[in-house]
């Protein structure tokens, strides 16, 4: 048995379900003592949010015209800017590598000192 329903009535029913879900979730979270009950209220609120998104989807699709935006988002590219020149024929990457090497050698010397029986323990 099919009952005809208008589009306007359907949207109103959807909005009523969303409002009921938000109200129920808020009440459940407000009066809950346990974390499980609060989680159930969160599920109600999440379902109401999803219902609101489904309700608003045709409007958002018509307003934002996603077919226009999506190809532009896919063609975005990041172009890094070159850093400042350090002069003296050295590039910035070489200076950075030397800094990393000296940092690693400092760490390795510290680890050698911390090893039992290693150099520089001061025993003996």
Automatic annotation (TrEMBL):
Keywords: Membrane, Transmembrane, Transmembrane helix. GO terms for cellular component: apical plasma membrane; ciliary basal body; cuticular plate; kinocilium; neuronal cell body. Coiled coil: none annotated. Residues 77-124 are annotated as: Disordered. The chain crosses the membrane at residues 12-31, 37-60. This is Kinocilin.
């Amino acid at each position: 048995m099919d009952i005809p329903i208008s589009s306007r009535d359907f949207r109103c029913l959807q909005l009523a379900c969303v409002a009921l879900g938000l109200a129920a979730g808020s009440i459940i979270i407000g009066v809950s003592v346990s974390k499980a009950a609060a989680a159930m209220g969160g599920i109600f609120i999440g379902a109401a949010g999803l219902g609101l998104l489904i309700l608003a989807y045709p409007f958002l699709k018509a307003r934002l015209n996603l077919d226009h935006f999506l190809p532009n988002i896919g063609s975005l590219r990041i172009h890094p800017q070159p850093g400042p020149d350090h002069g003296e024929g050295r590039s910035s990457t070489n200076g950075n590598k030397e800094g990393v090497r000296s940092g690693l050698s400092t760490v390795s010397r510290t680890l050698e000192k911390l090893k039992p029986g290693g150099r520089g323990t001061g025993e003996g």
